[in-house]
Design a protein that fits this description.
Elements (H helix, E strand, L loop, with lengths): L17 E5 L7 H10 L3 E5 L7 H4 L2 E5 L7 H8 L7 E3 L17 E3 L6 H16 L2 H9 L16 E5 L3 H10 L5 E6 L3 E3 L2 E5 L3 H4 L5 E4 L13 H6 L5 E4 L8 H10 L3 E4 L19 E3 L8 H20 L6 E3 L15
Parallel strand pairs: 1-2, 1-3, 3-4, 4-5, 6-7, 6-10, 7-9, 10-11, 11-12, 12-13
Antiparallel strand pairs: 5-14, 8-9
């Protein structure tokens, strides 16, 4: 919950570097983060909704840990782009597509990749089972006074499941689906051989989709993957196939998918959508062949503990000069001592 008692401390005369914790809620491990920062002579500042950092604090921010993207708010976005001495931006997400609008040249950016892999994979299984076993249909029939005990569902066991994405979430999805006896086909940007079997290239999807019972999307959003699953690819899926998306909403042409689901030819189970959130009157909210959850893949109790452990360890490594994990952007070697002041 939001903590209204948090305030930006008055800068001390020594003007130490600042650890900035941003967002409306308490971050996982926040008390330990504050204690660690203060132990190493750092000042701690909080950026809450609608607040602004005083210039003398903003110009000394060395490390920033923002909240999840949807919680940042306009003021937070503006502040992230105006931190001239920022050395480390540690995000809570596994992807960084939401940072594209910022100029982070000279800033080390680290993700929380791996923290929520198992939780997201667990939701893939839940969505697939809910769809392939008609759980939502039966629930709706019961609410309406019906009782469809003779309905036969396609089920998940023995299904041919194409998982697009071979990173941490893709691997976790494969592991979580294994007990269900599915015939797994893994796809990534490039083809390669692995101990767990071959990985096909994305370019092979047109030949892989006609035999798919379930298509699982666990890709990051990039210029290459945006709109990947368009009307053409959806048309290649056989009648009765299920599309599960836990990657990013923009991987899929939402209108094309909604048309396929409305026709009854395909079904969809989505934790990410485009637009996000779906408008109140969007057909995917009510179509009988669609199951939509509001981007809750990482929302399990154990994720918070893993997230807290990662944040505290990352800050410790930064403060003592040890290598960080999950670094996706590094400043040039000659910029390590003085990060670029250029920001959007």
């Amino acid at each position: 919950m939001a903590d209204p008692t948090r305030r930006i401390p008055v800068p001390r005369p020594s003007h130490p570097p600042v650890l900035l914790l941003a967002g409306p809620d308490v971050l996982p491990g926040e008390a330990d983060l504050v204690a660690l920062a203060e132990e190493h002579g750092r000042e701690v500042a909080w950026l809450g909704p609608g607040t602004r950092l005083p210039p003398d604090v903003r110009e000394r921010v060395e490390v920033c840990i923002p909240p999840l993207p949807h919680s940042l708010g306009a003021t937070g976005w503006e502040t992230l782009g105006l931190l001239p001495r920022l050395r480390l931006l540690q995000v809570l997400t596994g992807g960084t597509d939401w940072l594209r609008s910022l100029d982070l040249a000279g800033v080390r950016v680290a993700t929380s990749a791996g923290v929520a892999d198992a939780s997201v994979a667990e939701l893939v299984v839940a969505l697939a089972l809910a769809s392939r076993r008609d759980v939502v249909r039966h629930r709706d029939a019961l609410v309406a006074g019906g009782w469809e005990e003779d309905r036969v569902s396609p089920g998940l066991r023995g299904s041919r499941v194409v998982v697009v994405g071979a990173g941490g979430i893709g691997r976790a999805v494969a592991e979580h689906l294994a007990p269900f006896g599915v015939r797994l086909v893994r796809v990534a940007r490039t083809a390669r051989a692995t101990e767990a079997g071959p990985i096909h290239a994305v370019a092979e999807l047109p030949s892989l989709l006609p035999g798919a019972d379930v298509l699982v999307l666990a890709l990051p959003l990039t210029d290459e993957t945006a709109g990947l699953v368009d009307a053409r690819l959806l048309a290649l899926l056989p009648d009765g196939a299920l599309v599960v998306n836990v990657g990013r909403g923009r991987l899929v042409d939402t209108d094309a998918l909604a048309r396929e689901v409305a026709s009854g030819r395909l079904s969809a189970a989505l934790d990410v959508v485009d637009p996000d959130p779906l408008p109140a009157d969007h057909p995917l909210r009510t179509l009988p062949g669609a199951v939509v959850t509001p981007h809750v893949g990482r929302n399990t109790r154990d994720v918070e503990a893993r997230q807290a452990a990662l944040l505290v360890e990352q800050l410790r490594r930064h403060l003592v000069g040890e290598p960080l994990v999950n670094v996706v952007a590094e400043p040039p070697a000659d910029a390590a001592a003085e990060p670029s002041a250029g920001r959007v």
